[in-house]
Amino acid sequence: MLHRAGLVLPLLALAKAHSQSSFLPTNDCPILGPSFPSDFDIPQSKYIKEAIEAFPSLVDRLFEEEVLPKNATSFHIDVFSTRTNASIYEYSHTADIHKSALTSGVLDDGTIFRIGSVSKLFTVYTLLNVAGIEIFQHPVTQYLPELKGNTNRSKIIWEEITVGALASQQGGVGGFRKSSDYPSENVD
């Protein structure tokens, strides 16, 4: 934890220099600038080392207490430094029922996860927060005008598809089987 005493004196001096009406301290807004000195070595932090050491037993306890179903849960966690992009800690768990589905035979940072609508959920929540609910009634072409004018009946008519319909997968825009994202079918 950073020493707050080192910040208090300059803040008090600043507060004295301004009238109370123009300067009201609050805990809701952090001080601008980096939270840690730029040479802060996260992997060498005592607290990070303790967290890394404690994490496997925490996961084991979640399995033992059946908070997470051990035989149906698979995940990979990779904690990395945004400064160096180097991995600080990795942890994986593969349920027995999922082991045969791993094409490389191991669950690791190279595994492709099919997360379904989780990523779409973040997008929708962000839209709600930034633009409000009204945006979901707007046609997609309001934001992507280059999609306008498609009159071929065999193609998608984007003027008729709203942002909300697209976000809820009710826009009539189907998947394309040519994508390599789909598993291939064995045909004998």
TrEMBL record:
Q: Which Gene3D superfamilies match?
A: DD-peptidase/beta-lactamase superfamily
Taxonomically, which superkingdom?
Answer: Eukaryota
Pfam families in alphabetical order: Beta-lactamase
Q: Does the keyword Signal apply?
A: yes
Q: Where is the Beta-lactamase-related domain?
A: 107-184
- Which residue positions does the secretion signal occupy? 1-19
Keywords assigned by UniProt? Signal
Family affiliation: Belongs to the beta-lactamase family.
Please report the name of this protein according to its UniProt entry: Beta-lactamase-related domain-containing protein
- Which organism is this entry from? Didymosphaeria variabile
